[in-house]
Amino acid sequence: MISIGIIGAGIVGERIIKEMQQDGKIDIKGVYDVQQERLQYLNKTYGVPIADSFESILHSNIDWLYIGTPPALHSEIAKRAAGAGIHVLSEKPLAHNLADGEEMVAAVEKSRIRTAMHFPLMYSPAVHDMVKRIRTGNIGKITRIELQTFFPDWPRAWQQNPWIASRSQGGFVREVFPHYLQLLNRVFGELKIASHQISYPEQEDKCETGIIAHGLTAGNIPFLITGLSGIGQKELLQFKVYGEEGVLTLENWSNLYEERKYEERKQITDFVEVPTLFDAMRTQSTFLVTFEEGLVAQRYIDHLLQKN
Question: Where is the signal peptide (predicted)?
């Protein structure tokens, strides 16, 4: 049984509460947020205890602290948790920017606590199957990797809050790309972004509307990354790995497809069960994405958000 405190009562905080309760082996000691209405809602809906301050969460005899706040607050919260000797699970991106992320990593290394990033792809049976097929040569020599992301609207309808559309903290590059950049980095090694172009609206406080980037993996495999919002189609996320013998597509997070020459693509659904995030936290598994790995993704994100 893991005991955990939660900072952040927004949409992502609510989602992880559901996941923890479904797991059944997580003791939620308390939830804190400056939005009292949200705290009362979570208490009434899920029966979770609520706290009156961040300090009371830190002193509630917890093993882990979960950070589900806007990115600009991650660094200070993580550093205070590290100072109290509490392990930290953080939402992505790791921090507001690379400098904040480096401070977080330095603080946790000094305190020797364990860390984890909430990257659900790492605990997805479909993703594990995809990675196994890549590494065992099931689709032959890899010739190209593509990430394509399309959003009819950003923020999405379920995602409305004061910061998710802001240029300073929001946007799909910060919110969606970290998942796939971390996966790319873990499977194919360091990414070298050769060129990128990012588009922003005229309103200086609004986040990006489009991006395209390309580069090479550590093994000199070309990759292409595209993202576009405000377009006339359903949301579509495709992570594609092209091989000489076949092509694998991870679509909309969890749907895995395989294609072979001259054959229709087929969906793969027969997966082996894999450890969950909470299993990995309990066993200190190497599946956990540490802050150090989150910092690597942060570097890519900061680079992509810069105008050419």
Answer: none
